[in-house]
TrEMBL record:
<comment type="function">
    <text>Nucleotidase that shows phosphatase activity on nucleoside 5'-monophosphates.</text>
</comment>
<feature type="binding site">
    <location>
        <position position="96"/>
    </location>
    <ligand>
        <name>a divalent metal cation</name>
    </ligand>
</feature>
<dbReference type="GO" id="GO:0000166">
    <property type="term" value="F:nucleotide binding"/>
</dbReference>
<dbReference type="GO" id="GO:0008254">
    <property type="term" value="F:3'-nucleotidase activity"/>
</dbReference>
<feature type="domain" description="Survival protein SurE-like phosphatase/nucleotidase">
    <location>
        <begin position="3"/>
        <end position="195"/>
    </location>
</feature>
<keyword id="KW-0963">Cytoplasm</keyword>
<dbReference type="InterPro" id="IPR002828">
    <property type="entry name" value="SurE-like_Pase/nucleotidase"/>
</dbReference>
<keyword id="KW-0378">Hydrolase</keyword>
<feature type="binding site">
    <location>
        <position position="43"/>
    </location>
    <ligand>
        <name>a divalent metal cation</name>
    </ligand>
</feature>
<dbReference type="InterPro" id="IPR036523">
    <property type="entry name" value="SurE-like_sf"/>
</dbReference>
<comment type="similarity">
    <text>Belongs to the SurE nucleotidase family.</text>
</comment>
<feature type="binding site">
    <location>
        <position position="9"/>
    </location>
    <ligand>
        <name>a divalent metal cation</name>
    </ligand>
</feature>
<dbReference type="Pfam" id="PF01975">
    <property type="entry name" value="SurE"/>
</dbReference>
<protein>
    <recommendedName>
        <fullName>5'-nucleotidase SurE</fullName>
        <ecNumber>3.1.3.5</ecNumber>
    </recommendedName>
</protein>
<keyword id="KW-0547">Nucleotide-binding</keyword>
<feature type="binding site">
    <location>
        <position position="8"/>
    </location>
    <ligand>
        <name>a divalent metal cation</name>
    </ligand>
</feature>
<keyword id="KW-0479">Metal-binding</keyword>
Length: 261
């Protein structure tokens, strides 16, 4: 198996090292793992692509490249430059430092990379490690992902769990904020919503008198509804959420047809 890996935390991020080992385990001794990751951190860029300016790319080692662009740019670079002669069988994105559950999904560059791969017709899985009191102070806060990542992915590689729809399925996996030994299992979950939790902006004045705004995230340990991703994670479970890039609210289509008739 040929696997392309990327992330949004940057080419030197610890989570990418974890994902490299996971991908090597899945690819096996006869497989290949290729890395195309952002040269600098790209957290929060979502599915952004560098449409109006070129992206510089540099080879750092065999099968390891850094691109001055977004995670989605990295996937495009992998498919149309780095691996253009033999496309990957699978794209893995992560392991993100912090959860990409609930509303975080909409901002995540980790998710954006997986979404781009799906739009390009490549099976893709995004992986993120929730941080909290149960793992933040561990020698390896990514140990839940490191321990359980390959087994979850191997289950998801069952051909029956994929399709050939125009907006193809991809998967969002979040590992709970606990030690690897304390993971309770895996749950299929829908995308949750943290009520009264929003990104905000905080103003600060620089020593030169200029005003700057810092974007701040909301509380991350607010449980979402039962059966959803963050609720499962905070209960000690790995969450697996099937996703598509289609944003249509199909429940409203018939209503709108009546309105506009």
């Amino acid at each position: 198996m040929r696997i392309l890996i990327t992330n949004d935390d940057g080419i030197n991020a610890p989570g990418l090292q974890v994902l490299t080992k996971i991908a090597q385990d899945i690819a096996g001794p006869s497989g290949e793992v290729w890395t195309v990751a952002p040269a600098f951190e790209q957290s929060g860029v979502g599915h952004c692509i560098s449409y109006t300016h070129p992206t510089m790319i540099a080879q750092l080692e065999p099968r390891r490249f850094a691109a001055e662009g977004s995670p989605a740019d990295c996937v495009i670079a992998g498919l149309y430059d780095v691996m253009k002669d033999a496309r990957p069988d699978l794209v893995l994105s992560g392991v993100n430092r912090g959860n990409n559950a609930a509303e975080n999904t909409l901002y995540s560059g980790t998710i954006g990379a997986a979404m781009e791969a799906a739009l390009q017709g490549i099976p893709a899985i995004a992986l993120s490690q929730y941080f909290g009191v149960g793992n933040a102070q561990l020698p390896d806060p990514f140990e839940a992902a490191a321990k359980h990542g390959a087994s979850v992915i191997n289950i998801l590689l069952n051909p029956s769990l994929w399709d050939q729809e125009n907006y193809r399925l991809f998967y969002n996996v979040n590992f709970p904020p606990v030690a690897a030994a304390d993971v309770k299992g895996v749950k299929a979950a829908s995308q949750g919503f943290r009520k009264d939790t929003h990104f905000t902006a905080e103003a600060q004045t620089s020593p030169t008198g200029r005003k700057f705004l810092w974007v701040r995230g909301g509380p991350q340990h607010t449980p979402t509804a039962p059966g959803t991703d963050a609720a499962a994670n905070l209960d000690g479970y790995i969450s697996v959420t099937p996703m598509r890039a289609d944003l249509t609210d199909y429940d409203m289509v018939a209503t709108l047809e009546e309105v506009f008739t």
